[in-house]
Amino acid sequence: MAAEKSVYEKLSEKIMAPGSVRIPKLFAMLVDARDAEILLALPGAAPGLAAQFNMSQEDMAAKLHGFFLKGLAFKSKKGDVVRYRLCRDVAQFHDATILWPGAGRDYYNLWQEYMENEWPEYTKLVEKFLPRPFTRLIPVEQSIQAGQKILPYESCKELIESSTKIAVTKCTCRLIAHKCDNPIEVCLQIGKAAEYNLERGTGQEISKEEALGIIRQCELAGLMHVTMNKSENMHFICNCCGCCCMAMPMMIQYGRRMNDPSRFVAQVDADACEVCGACVDRCWFKAITVLPDADFALVDEERCVGCGICQVTCPAGAISLAEIRNPSFIPA
Length: 332
Prior knowledge:
Layout: H1 7-14, H2 23-30, H3 33-40, E1 44-45, H4 46-52, H5 57-70, E2 73-78, E3 81-86, H6 90-98, H7 105-117, H8 119-129, E4 135-138, H9 156-161, E5 166-169, H10 172-177, E6 187-190, H11 192-200, E7 204-205, H12 208-221, E8 224-228, E9 236-240, H13 248-254, E10 259-260, E11 264-268, H14 278-282, E12 288-289, E13 298-299, H15 309-312, E14 319-323
Parallel strand pairs: 4-10
Antiparallel strand pairs: 1-3, 2-3, 4-8, 5-6, 5-7, 6-9, 8-9, 11-14, 12-13
Helix pairs in contact: 1-2, 1-3, 2-7, 4-5
């Protein structure tokens, strides 16, 4: 007879990670078994859960708010009733709980063990069951060829300028992996996501000018802009490296379709190119090469994700992005 599953294993299944070795351990680092049972009972509101677990409504409300602060539960309000739900999946569990101020290095290290040992296999399922990636690349704005149209939802500047509230948070991926020296406090949360992180105390409110400054800092550092793969109601602009990120190494090492590319591809002006190789060093996807005795760098359009990071530090200004996909490529 099979052994009965622990409450932590049941929670792991509920966020679509059945059979994981480390996800149950991560839950156990955040809550005891009694609290895990309450989490397992979500979605729900304080009155109903209080009756179910023989607690006062005040104590249950405090308990649920504690789950919210830890990133385990998300809340929504309808009238006077506040309902809570468990984090949706592994990625949401990752992003929300790692930012909790009470998380320590032991917690980070266990997450990184999961990312190294279990995440690559898990991404096979992500790729299989999602019709399109949840996220996509945003091009560096100044890299677009003259005359090419960049849409508001593929422009960091436009997304920032149109936002009502902006917060900056730490990059959860670099926080746990620390495989590079790239800046950590550079993930931009916009609109409702900013309000969520400010309420939890996991983000700091910043001005639009400060946000644009972070974007420029990240471009110079060689980080790629990533946002939600749709044309409206954006919540974040991540600034990703190719070594610590949840998605980029899966794309680079395993060819997983974790991010959609932008609508653009890098092009090299053969007459202007000085064959210095700076773009080769900048490209995370090895989409640019300089052949022996070549007069200019070559771009592999199949590998290029259209981020434009190669253009930012090109001393000759020989690189630009050309449109190769029409606007309908981005889901409505």
